[in-house]
Amino acid sequence: MGRADFPIWFSERVQHMETVLDGFLPESSIVPMRLHEAMRYSVMGGGKRVRAALVYAAGEACVPAGQSVTSAQGIALDHAAAAVELIHAYSLVHDDLPCMDDDDLRRGRPTVHVRFDEATAMLAGDALQPLAFELLAQMPVAPALVVQAVEALARCAGSLGMAGGQAIDCASVGLDLSQEQLQIMHGMKTGAMLEASVLLGGIVAGASSTARQGLEAYADAIGLAFQVVDDVLDVVSDTSTLGKTAGKDAAGNKPTYVSLLGLEGSRELLQALRQEAHAAVLPLGPPGTRLAELADYIVGRNR
Amino acid sequence: MGRADFPIWFSERVQHMETVLDGFLPESSIVPMRLHEAMRYSVMGGGKRVRAALVYAAGEACVPAGQSVTSAQGIALDHAAAAVELIHAYSLVHDDLPCMDDDDLRRGRPTVHVRFDEATAMLAGDALQPLAFELLAQMPVAPALVVQAVEALARCAGSLGMAGGQAIDCASVGLDLSQEQLQIMHGMKTGAMLEASVLLGGIVAGASSTARQGLEAYADAIGLAFQVVDDVLDVVSDTSTLGKTAGKDAAGNKPTYVSLLGLEGSRELLQALRQEAHAAVLPLGPPGTRLAELADYIVGRNR
């Protein structure tokens, strides 16, 4: 299903996202300077921008047939894509802190609390969250759509979404989780924000409720796939390729898909999820192709 | 200006807020249970609810002349009041962590990281933020007003508001700050969320732009007053009355209004700010009385 121009499309969106984020983040010269510097360091650290790409792909897929993204919708997608990247960035900063995963390395660079200090890292994360919601509030689309976007992001980032998944993850170190329990945890920790990404794209583009259902099914599949790939990479990859400490899950006695299903079983699950994702966006027709291609990318990524 | 029924009005709003917050917070029986328990512990710990009272007072002051708060506006005020209390609660939880103020006692009880653990305290704070924005998104008023409320809360909670003030506070321990620098810091750290409280009340009630200017001037005065009172209490009160460690600022060599202006100078400043606050809400007429009374309460409080 993938097209040869997908890498170009993806790379254009990623580069555009870097410019947009740079413009949205307060300058390091504005007081409090150290906090703003830490926020920029947290966000501009060379992330894969998969979530931003999902926002754009879902937005481009859901505009009414025969139309393309309007200028206002394009700006709104920038805001929405930046918002999910800011929430993702804050979660990594807090996750790396000593009281959580205590990681020194992220994307090949010192983590925020190592480069700055713990208090600054915590506050940088704390300040990235409201900036995400501020960007949504400033989207130039109908206020009713903005409200839907705020609600979706808040729900996916909260105690029944990402933050809750993080809490379950912390609490389950050293425990034997069933596949179902593992799936619930990752569905919250990782899946919820991937779901937020595609939902926000759909909301901005005025997606029908049928289209939104397709997006949700797609998000369920890629959310799970994302985590399975993470677990596989933790085993088969090395620290320099990953840009973070490899083998950490096994060392920390964390339950993973690989420990549960084995490498082969994990890879079979990935192919099934990839097909699920493709099927979910099929009703969107040709505009849904980018979403299918992103599913392939997520399953095939090596870092 | 104050009326004899103010304590009743205030106490009714506080009790109502407790019920409302109890209803909005996820039950401790819902997974992740420990996180939800920590969120409840953070929020339901007997706060003064000054911010909630400001939301209600501003809302009641800004409905058009001759009208009273509608049922939908009343529900929206509940959401807005809960939202500012959640943001305030999260900020205290993170502020008490070892990497920040490292406090063991808050409102006479063990702080969240002492009662639970550091990771749970951080995640509880992280999860309270999106819940606040979710509650705003669910307000039953015009979507355009909801969007204004989200933007105001996000701005006041962010790096140019509360989180930024916290960062400056951390960075200024042991430094000599001028009165102007101290004022900027506290204006962000404490004042911004008091401003958010009155603004949100005004927005829900459909306040005119003139009324909103009055609210902002009022918020500036009480925001500053709030901090001056805090500094005075840290010197003249004791730990059991305060419910937190007294004398902590002086021990930590933190710059305060008392260290800068002395006790007498601080008390003179308080009276001037009280008069400023009264003058700012005078144009609102009799419905603005509760706001004036809240200013008196803030200046006169002993914990």
Task: Walk me through the structure.
The structure is a homodimer of 303-residue chains. With 303 residues, chain A is mainly alpha-helical. The first copy, chain A, has one domain (6-300): Orthogonal Bundle (Farnesyl Diphosphate Synthase). Chain A has 14 helices and 2 strands; from the N terminus they run H-H-H-H-E-E-H-H-H-H-H-H-H-H-H-H. In chain A, strands 1-2 form a two-stranded antiparallel sheet. In chain A, helix 4 (71-95) packs antiparallel against helix 6 (118-137), helix 4 (71-95) runs antiparallel to helix 9 (179-204) and helix 13 (257-281) packs antiparallel against helix 14 (289-300). The mean pLDDT of chain A is 92.
What is the fold-level CATH name, i.e. the topology of chain A? Farnesyl Diphosphate Synthase
- Rg of Cα set of chain A: 18 Å
Would you list the SSEs of chain A in sequence order as H and E?
A: HHHHEEHHHHHHHHHH
CATH superfamily of chain A: Farnesyl Diphosphate Synthase
State the domain count of chain A: 1
Strand content of chain A: under 5%
Q: What ranges of chain A have pLDDT less than 50 throughout 5 or more consecutive residues?
A: none
Instruction: Please give the number of β-strands of chain A.
Output: 2
- Strand arrangement within the widest β-sheet of chain A reads 1-2
Q: How does CATH name the architecture of chain A?
A: Orthogonal Bundle
Shape of chain A: globular
Mean pLDDT of chain A: 92
Structural class call of chain A reads: mainly alpha
